[in-house]
C-alpha cells in the first residue's frame, strides 16, 4: 500500500502541473487574505483567520480534484491498471494507497498556510489570534481535504478521461459541501426539517469543528463519508 502511496506522490511532482497547482492555491489564498480589499485580513482591524478558513474550502474544492483526477483514470488510459492488478496487492490496498498518497499532497499544500497564522500573530498589537479556534479549523481543513480526496479518487475510478474525473469530482464535492445548506433554506423545510437537512452536508460539520471543539459526531461523519466513497471505489475496481 505504501508503495502505491509513494508512487502517487512522485507522479504528482514529476510534472510542472503539480507545482503549479500548489503555487496557485497558495497565491490565491495570499491575494484574498492580504491584497484584495474586500477580504483582506489587514483591513479587519483585529487578528483573525476567519476569512481564510471560510475561503480555503472553496479553493480546496478545485485543488483536490486536480490532485486526484489522474489517480486511477491515468491507470486506465495508460493501460497500467492491468499491470497493477497483477501485483500482490488487493483492491483495498490500491485504493487506500492512492488515498493516502493524494492526502499527503493536500496536507503539504496546507502546511505553508501556517505562515498566515504566524504573520497575523506577529502583526497583532494586543491579544493575538484564537489559537484553539485556529487549531480546530486546521483540523477541520484536514478532514475536509480527506473527504474531497476520497470523492476525487472515487470519481477517477469511473473514467479514463482526467477532465471528466476532475469535473465529476469537483461537482460532487460542491454538492456535498454546499448543496444540503442550499436545500435546507427552501421555504418548504422551514418547519424544523431545515436543521436536520443541513446536518447532512459537509459544511455543517466543518463549521462545527472550526469553533475549536472537536466533536466525536463530526469526526464520525467525516470518517463515514471517506469510508463510503473509498468502498465504492474498491467495488468499482473489483468489477474491472
Would you kindly provide a written description of the structure presented here, covering whatever features stand out?
The chain has 240 residues and is an all-alpha fold. The chain has one domain. It is 75% helix and 0% strand. The longest helix is centred in the middle third of the chain and has 26 residues, at 131-156. The protein is globular, with a radius of gyration of 19 Å. Keywords: Cell membrane, Membrane, Transmembrane, Transmembrane helix. It comes from Sediminibacterium roseum. It is found in: Cell membrane.
Helix and strand pattern: HHHHHHHHHHHH
Low-confidence stretches: none
Structural class: mainly alpha
Helix content: over 70%
Shape: globular
What is the arithmetic mean of pLDDT?
82
Q: Would you spell out the secondary-structure blueprint of this structure?
A:
Elements: H1 2-12, H2 16-34, H3 50-68, H4 73-78, H5 81-85, H6 91-110, H7 114-123, H8 131-156, H9 162-184, H10 193-199, H11 202-210, H12 216-239
List keywords for this structure.
Gliding motility-associated ABC transporter permease subunit GldF, 0% strand, single chain, 240 residues, globular, transmembrane, membrane
Gist?
This protein is an all-alpha fold and 240 residues long. It contains twelve helices and no strands.
